[in-house]
């Protein structure tokens, strides 16, 4: 993991003011050797203090700049709430909000145009893995965003989340994850070889304090997108520390 690691917390539809306070206090002890990102529900973004040693992000972003889009948040609104990152294309939004590859590509472009960093989430289902379609699925998801917009790659972060591992307690082995991350980097080099070498590719899918160090030891795993464990401040800090090591 030669690139500076990024550990991102996705709180999903969880959290409150107390968690904001405890996470802020816990993360304050971390050094600058690791970049930390917290993506809480949007209503909690303004609760975080301006003085902190980590970045904030949205869990989604609109492809539109403004207008009659009830319930959506534009890049400008996220920036107003101090967000400098946003998740895009998380599997739960692809599944429950039926987000298409085309819409996700628009969101990545909108985020970068507005000055925030998109964390593009990609991943395969269990059925697709069992049918040995993992690389085919990931290549399609990446091509939808970068084949026609290669200039966006240098300003992006990728999060590989095998859908079968999210919230299940199951995780890809470090070796499995490394093979997939290496494929992702090689695939992206087709669009911008230089950017692909500098791109941070995060692993997500039941990352916890017990498995994080082995994952971070892999050369193409540059951090993690952490779900359930990010709601436990002490464990989240342990994950961050294992990335630094």
UniProtKB/TrEMBL annotation:
Top-level EC class as recorded in UniProt: isomerase
Record's keyword annotation contains Cytoplasm: yes
Pathway(s) where this gene product acts: Carbohydrate biosynthesis; gluconeogenesis; Carbohydrate degradation; glycolysis; D-glyceraldehyde 3-phosphate from glycerone phosphate: step 1/1; Carbohydrate metabolism; erythritol degradation
Pfam families in the record: TIM
GO cellular component: cytosol
TM spans (from-to): none
Reaction(s) catalysed (UniProt annotation): D-glyceraldehyde 3-phosphate = dihydroxyacetone phosphate
A molecular function GO annotation: triose-phosphate isomerase activity
EC number: 5.3.1.1
Major location (coarse): cytoplasm
GO process terms (BP): gluconeogenesis; glyceraldehyde-3-phosphate biosynthetic process; glycerol catabolic process; glycolytic process
PANTHER family (UniProt xref): TRIOSEPHOSPHATE ISOMERASE
Record note on quaternary structure: Homodimer.
Family: Belongs to the triosephosphate isomerase family.
Reported function: Involved in the gluconeogenesis. Catalyzes stereospecifically the conversion of dihydroxyacetone phosphate (DHAP) to D-glyceraldehyde-3-phosphate (G3P).
Name assigned to this protein: Triosephosphate isomerase
Organism of origin: Alishewanella jeotgali KCTC 22429
Gene that produces this protein: tpiA
């Amino acid at each position: 993991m030669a690139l500076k690691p990024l550990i991102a917390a996705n709180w999903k539809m969880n959290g409150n003011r107390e968690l904001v306070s405890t996470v802020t206090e816990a993360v304050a002890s971390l050094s600058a050797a690791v970049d930390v990102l917290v993506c809480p529900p949007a209503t909690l973004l303004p609760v975080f203090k301006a003085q902190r040693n980590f970045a904030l992000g949205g869990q989604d972003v609109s492809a539109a700049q403004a207008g009659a889009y009830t319930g959506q948040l534009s890049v400008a609104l996220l920036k107003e709430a101090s967000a400098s990152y946003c998740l895009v294309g998380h599997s739960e939004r692809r599944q429950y909000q039926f987000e298409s590859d085309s819409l996700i590509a628009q969101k990545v472009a909108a985020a970068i145009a507005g000055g925030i960093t998109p964390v593009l989430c990609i991943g395969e289902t269990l059925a697709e893995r069992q049918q040995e379609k993992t690389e085919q699925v990931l290549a399609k998801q990446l091509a939808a965003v970068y084949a026609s917009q290669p200039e966006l790659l240098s300003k992006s972060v990728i999060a590989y989340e095998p859908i079968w591992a999210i919230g299940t307690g199951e995780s890809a082995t470090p070796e499995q994850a490394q093979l997939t991350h290496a494929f992702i980097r090689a695939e992206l080099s087709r669009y911008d070889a230089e950017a692909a070498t500098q791109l941070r590719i995060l692993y997500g899918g039941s990352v916890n304090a017990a498995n994080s160090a082995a994952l971070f030891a892999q050369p193409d795993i540059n951090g993690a997108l952490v779900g359930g464990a990010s709601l436990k401040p002490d464990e989240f800090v342990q994950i961050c520390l294992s990335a630094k090591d």
